[in-house]
Amino acid sequence: MGHRSKNAPRCTRCRLHVAACVCEHIVALELETRVVLIMHYKELPKTTATGPMALAALDNSELYVHGRRDQPVELDHLHDEQRRVLVLFPQQGACTLSAAFRNDDPRPVTLVVPDGSWRQASRIPKRIGAVARAQAVTLPPGPTTRWGVRRETHPSGLATFEAIARALGYLESQAVRLELEGLFERMVTATYQNRGHDRDTPGRLVHRMAGELSATQA
Q1: What are the C-alpha distances in Å from 178 to residues 10, 13, 99, 109, 116?
Q2: 29-172 maps to which CATH number?
Q3: What is the sign, positive or negative, of the torsion defined by CA atoms of 58, 75, 100, 138?
Q4: What residues does each domain of the chain span?
Q5: What is the pLDDT of residues 153-204, one digit of tens each?
Q6: How many CA atoms lie within 13 A of 36 on its CB side?
Q7: Helices 174-194 and 202-217 sit at what angle, rounded to 10 degrees?
Q8: What is the pTM of this model?
Q9: What is the pLDDT of residue 109?
Q10: Is the Cβ–Cβ distance between 45 and 77 less than 8 Å?
């Protein structure tokens, strides 16, 4: 596939160029975990933003935009005694996700995910009261990002899609993580091919990822 013009039409769902659309591979997942993505308003129009693509595969999910003048984000309704509210960001005092952490509280989880540059995302938990009251969680060390389209400003930085997939591996199952990461790899491959670069095929990468997960669980 050759390089395409930046002005070529894009799919409104996956944000890829229409000719590279991966929507046919999206399998809607009905999970107990509810993902709430809070995007900084400057992140929303970027075609390299991966968070919305993750939400396309998650039926029980929501998107809010933070930072618009006179349009504050109100999320007090998220705090329900029947649910456990977590915010995924590696801030000081955050608990590391694990099977033990998940099993410590049987309630279904509402996972709040700040999205933007590192600086933008770090401010979201401080500026939205309902997010500030959520329990902060972070991911354990793992493979570096596969995205590579945008320069990470933090050594452990991941694409938002990757972070959501890995978190759901602990909050739901490794099968859910693999399903999402398989879709993400299709997105990565299509993006690189569109730019005229070679990339591993999604099928081969899914098998590799499954092997990596098995190794970490051994």
Answers
A1: 26, 21, 17, 20, 24
A2: 3.40.1280
A3: positive
A4: 29-172
A5: 554 578 899 999 999 999 999 999 999 999 999 888 887 776 665 555 444 4
A6: 23
A7: 140
A8: 0.82
A9: 97
A10: no
